[in-house]
Specification:
three-stranded antiparallel β-sheet
Length: 103
């Protein structure tokens, strides 16, 4: 079996600590050893203290913050497998009935 081949997993057991995460946004970056996917669900505008360089007083400024729900750390081979799973899912989605392109 090559790393590009789809793995069929038939029997799955989930520990009591298992949970699902709904994400509306995702980012990913390589480290020296692995790939890290970070999942986001909320984006809120929050007031935060901003230190001003030329003034002694602090000022509150509203800024957008993304709330990270989770991070998944993948070995390089798992990244290729994830790509294959996602490529297949996107093709099935695009080929499905009544699909509008979502960007």
């Amino acid at each position: 079996m090559t790393e590009d081949e789809e793995i069929k997993i038939k029997n799955i057991k989930r520990p009591v600590t298992f949970h699902k995460i709904y994400a509306t946004n995702v980012t990913g970056d390589w480290t020296d050893y692995d790939f890290r996917l970070e999942f986001f669900n909320e984006k809120m505008k929050i007031k935060e203290d901003v230190e001003l360089v030329d003034e002694e007083e602090n000022e509150e400024e509203e800024q957008w913050f993304y709330f990270s729900e989770a991070m998944v750390i993948l070995a390089p081979k798992a990244v290729r497998r994830l790509k294959n799973v996602i490529d297949k899912a996107v093709k099935e989605y695009d080929d499905g009935p009544n699909v509008e392109n979502v960007e």
